[in-house]
Amino acid sequence: MSNRNLLKRREALGKMGKIGLAVGVAAAAAAAGTGAYFLYKPPEKPVEAPTPKKEVTITVWSQETPPHRVARQKSIIKMFEAENPGIKVELVPVGWEEVYPKVLSSIAAGNPPDIEFSIPPLTLAAYNAGGIAEVDDIVEEIDQEYKFGPAEKRMAYWDKHYWGVPIFTLVMGVNLRKDISEKVGYPEGPKTWSEYLDFNEKVSKLEKDPLTGGPIYGNFVPSIKHLYGTEILYTIMVNTGARVIGDDGKTVVFNSRETIRALEYYKELAKYRPPGSADWGWAEVTAPWETGQLASMYNWSVFITFAARDMPHIAKMQTYIENPVPDSPPSVRGSVTYPYAAWISRKAVEEGKKEACKKFLKFILRPEINGYLCNMEPFFFLPPHDAGIESEAYKSDPLNMEYWHIVETLQRARPYGKLYGFEGPETCKFIGEIEGTDLLALVGQKVALGQMTPEEAAAWGQAEMEKIAEKYR
Question: Taking the model in full, what pTM does it have?
Fold first, then answer.
């Protein structure tokens, strides 16, 4: 990304952070042309802190570290503290690149966070380290009132207990330039693999982007050792019915015809990505997408959110579709999904902080509060219950209103979401280590860079995963 684009990104993030903080602290936001932005009303009288108990401080770790997301989370904490004067909440942003070792080392050292906003494999890693407590009572109380989605509950449950409280959900699909898709003959977007490859081939023959006049490329798939690569390969594997782990939650079944088929397709897609993009990650792909150099890419919808803020004239030409599926069986609708859940550490319970943690989690799962939380990135974070989706706080956000068709796409795709390690009736206890070592990303890398054939890469991945599985037998 150029220095100019980096500066633009920082300015945009800074502005959004200030907006989020100002709106959050206010009891009610002013209308923004399109209606109320947030309808939170504090109680007439703050809830009195129980006496003679002293003030409790709970620490919350979150991987949502961009400045505007941090500001949004802090604004919600201020609302909570206003209602609960006996409880203080300390937010600690922790980046994805460091969260696994930091969580595990904090548990080993006896100083974990009280709450961590976690994805399922990370929750399992913390569980295996003996660092978290069951939260059955919290999940059941909130579920009775608001009804969590089935995937949200499934991916927080194993060994007869809930180990996390769902807080928001991500669902992946394909970012698409709708004007380009129409130009090459797919007005509704490609539906199958053959159509998507044909789309890419036709884009490769365009001399320039008709909107910007610059170069344009069909898609981008990563080839780096990173969670990004893991997610993109797995979302394609979902469509072939490929699995990482068998129904018993213990047997590695990665080396299969279905996985090889997904890798063959991955290899084909890599032919159409921009030259010199082999080492691109999330940061590097942002500017090419925002400036119209990419006609499509498997990725999260947040990249359209970024474009809507930075390059609105290009964002108007962008849309979001469900994953294309193989033309012949097995052909499975779906994509990767991450239901985030907040876990509570065992140490927090031992120190008598569970009730304070419970109050905080119940607060952020109120529909209006949760809708406001999820709008730290509109049409990207989805509330974990329909009450949040239908809340005025969520629906009235200006970007959500303008791009509501993307929310509808995400909601249609949501029931078909899958995640490695949670594919069968039994949860895989070592999936956190498989994800944390980026093995899926490395398999995709070897194929995309031509270092291995799909068959060789599937066999290599199987062998490496079995080494991890052996440690848990």
Answer: 0.87
**CATH homologous superfamily of 3-170+338-413:** Periplasmic binding protein-like II (3.40.190.10)
Handedness of CA 211, 216, 221, 225 (dihedral sign): negative
Q: What percentage of the chain carries pLDDT values higher than 70?
A: 89
Where on the phi/psi map is residue 213: left (φ > 0), alpha (ψ -120 to 50), or beta?
left
Q: Same fold for the domain at 3-170+338-413 and the one at 173-335+417-471?
A: yes
Summarize pLDDT for 402-461 with one digit per residue, the tens: 999 999 999 999 999 999 999 999 999 999 899 989 999 999 999 999 999 999 999 999
Residue 114 zone, left/alpha/beta (φ > 0; ψ -120 to 50; rest)? alpha
Asked if 443 and 460 count as a contact pair (C-beta separation under 8 A), the reply is yes
With a CB cutoff of 8 Å and minimum separation 6, the contacts of 352 are: 56
* The two structure tokens encoding residue 29: 């936001």
359 pLDDT tier (thresholds 50, 70, 90): very high
Report the top-level CATH class of 173-335+417-471. Answer: alpha beta
